[in-house]
Amino acid sequence: MTKEGKLIIFSAPSGAGKTTIVHHLLSKIPDLEFSISATTRKSRGDEVNGKDYYFISKEEFLHRIAKKQFVEFEEVYSGTFYGTLRTEIERIWKDGKTVIFDIDVEGGLHLKRKYEEQALAIFVQPPSLEVLKERLTGRGTDSKEKLAERFIKAEKELNYAPQFDIILKNYDLETACKEAEDLVSAFISQS
Q1: How are beta strands 70-77 and 80-85 bridged, if at all?
Q2: Cystine design at 164: which of 27, 59, 121, 146 (Cβ 3.0–4.6 Å)?
């Protein structure tokens, strides 16, 4: 039986900066280890299977749902699933580390409800919906249809912010990274 540890959950609408903040924290706090999510979407750019995500087929994903291998999962976009494998959390705790998540808003809330006091749930809030739209469009990785889907989802997700432990405003990335570092370090050091 693996000794349970702590979890740090970063959630936000796509484009709010959560991934950049999580990468910053991983480079600064050695006690953290990234929880690699499973997904049915195709890899983008230079994403690596087993490092950025576990890329699996929809059939495999559904099979793992049936076998209750996920602590949480969502159909984030139509036909595209994301989830956290139970074995991933156990692997990190076994190494004596704190799990850090870069996860969609509903998945983040699900984890927070499941792990309660063991988890610190942080919502990364963008300066505005307009800025978020500019960031997503500027990425150049999504079709117009996919962008429209992301914008609709982002508007909905911003309403969930008050359900998180902390709302971290990402108006200036350097400031947000420093604030995140302080929050996470304080949470990890609590007994």
Answers
A1: antiparallel
A2: 121
- What the block records as the tokens of 48 is 């690596």
Rg of the chain in Å (alpha carbons): 16
* CA terminus-to-terminus distance, the chain: 21
Specify the pLDDT at position 97. 96
What pLDDT score was predicted for residue 137? 80
Q: Give the global pTM.
A: 0.87
Distance from C-alpha of 2 to C-alpha of 43, rounded to nearest angstrom: 31
Q: Which domains does the chain have, with CATH numbers?
A: 7-189 (3.40.50.300)
Q: Which helix (H) or strand (E) holds 156?
A: helix 144-158
CA–CA distance from 191 to each of 5, 72, 115, 117 (Å)? 11, 26, 16, 11
Could you give the 3-state DSSP secondary structure of residue 26?
A: helix
* Residues 83/72, Cβ–Cβ less than 8 Å: yes
In 3-state terms, what secondary structure has residue 116? helix
